[in-house]
Structures are given as C-alpha cells and as structure tokens.
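pinned: reference chain
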Amino acid sequence: MQTKNIMIVGVGGQGTLLASKLLGKLLLGKGYDVKVSEVHGMSQRGGSVVTYVRYGDKVYSPVIDKGEADVIVSFEMLEAARWVEYLKPDGVIITNTQQVNPMPVIIGAQEYPENLVEKIKNLGIKLNALDALSLAELAGSSKAVNIVLMGRLSKLFDFSEQEWINAIEQSVPEKFLELNKKAFRLGRDYEV
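pinned: its structure tokens
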C-alpha cells in the first residue's frame, strides 16, 4: 500500500496530540507501519501545534512535505488556512469552524481573517467544515473537539465504528470514555 499522510493541526491545549495517538493506535492495530511526528510551536501559549501521521506498508520518514497530505484535520479555521499548501491536489481538509485568536489578534496588531471557509473552498479544495465545538459541548465537554473531529475523519476510512471505539478505549481515561464515545459518534454522524 502506498503511504498515506494525515496532518493534525491546531493550537496548544486543543488535544491534537491525543488525536494523533488515537489514530496511530488504530492504524497500528490494523497492521500498518505507522510514523507519528509532533511539531510543537508555543503550545502552552496557544501557539500552532502540528502532528504528522504517516502509514502504509513501510514508512521511512515521519515528515510530510508541502503537497503531500491526503487529509488535514484542523482544530481551528486559521490553522486550516495556514497549512493548506501541504494538501495534495485531491486531498481533503476537515476543519472545526471555531476561531481561536492568535496573539497578534489578541493584542490588536492584526485582524482575524474573514470568510476563511469560503476562501479555502474557492481554492478548489474539498473542505468538510463543522462546528465541532458545539458538538463537543453537546457530548458533555468543550475539550472533546478532538474526538468529534476524529469521528468526522473516520468517515474517510473503511474501518468499522467499533475499531475506532476500541482505539478510543485504549487512549482515553475510563472516567471520560462515555463522553468521548458520544463526541466521536456526533462527529461521525454529522451531516455536512
């Protein structure tokens, strides 16, 4: 199998690392060679965080270059726009429509770009945008955005829902399991 590339992008504290570990466990369990690489910005202060997940028969490098990502999962709109050049021409972006203001916007040095969903779609990109924050809150916690997005991502795979649930059970503390299962299903079942 040809190597597939998934980028998970967001800002510090959004759970991108848990999402990449969950995905890595699932893919390893399916028998793929998997490489996961974490690239941290100022993650403790809301800076950009990127994780590369590469899988296939044999993966030699954990790094994804521009134009190589089959899927970009973005936890925030500006991060989707920031990493768009890494997407393959036939790739897909799954993004949360939530807006998290970066420091230049917070201090008034810049304005948050408007109409990012439309701007990305106008590039001819397959964009799957959803309000993952509202779905996470419906599941019981705003911190479950990452699992909502994994639910949405699961629609691009031929793996069963139970295989994804098993990976969640291996990745999430037991006291948060039901909440995360609900968040996953809300993301998976969301109609765009």
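why pinned: The chain has one domain: 4-189. The longest strand covers residues 87-96.
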